[in-house]
Amino acid sequence: MCKRCPWLDETKSDYVEYHDNEWGVPVFDDKTLFEFLVLESAQAGLSWYTILKRREGYQRAFADFDVEKVAQFSPQEEEQLMQDTGIIRNRLKIKSTVTNAQRFIQIQQEFGSFSQYLWSYVEHAVIVNNWQCLEDYPATSPVSDALSKDLKKRGFKFVGSTIIYAYLQAAGLINDHSQQCYRRQQIIDSYSSLGVKYVMSNQ
Questions:
Q1: Annotated binding site for Zn(2+): which residue ranges?
Q2: Helices (H) and strands (E) in the chain — how many of each?
Q3: pTM beyond 0.85
Q4: Of the candidates 34, 162, 190, 199, which lies 20 to 30 Å from 69 by C-alpha distance?
Q5: CA–CA dist 123, 173 (Å, integer)
Q6: Where do the domains of the chain lie, and which CATH numbers do they carry?
């Protein structure tokens, strides 16, 4: 029996699959980074599992997370999404997804890729934390504070530090698998061999 992170509800098979195959895996692909940003910003005020269950709905609603297409959604298309039961029907969150797509493209144009911009916040090396129990996990970090502040300055919405910390965890810029979790070292070993750098946190 594999030991997993203390936050995971192992009675939910789709949640276990997400934890085992995606959470904390380093992401460098802009399309996936946009997808995770859409999903994490939709999470604001809700549980992550609420969004995870609707992932396919978001994929359909937001053009398979094609940032160029989402950036061009019209007010009419935004209004149509208010009738879409496959997503969270929150007007501000729907509008913010379109706005964030537009800002995402601006960053791509400025830095060459969103990935290049994002990974610069961890100096292109995964931060590995040393959490043991659920109480150890923080809601934010200095990195999420700084990134959140810059994203807000650039016009992004629903990108508070708590959301951004969850985003960094999901996209693998921070490896927050607990010390007991089998995925912690597995991811480090797999991606170190591919040239990904890791920095062990003092926390």
A1: 5, 19, 177, 181
A2: 11, 3
A3: yes
A4: 162
A5: 10
A6: 22-115+122-200 (1.10.340.30)
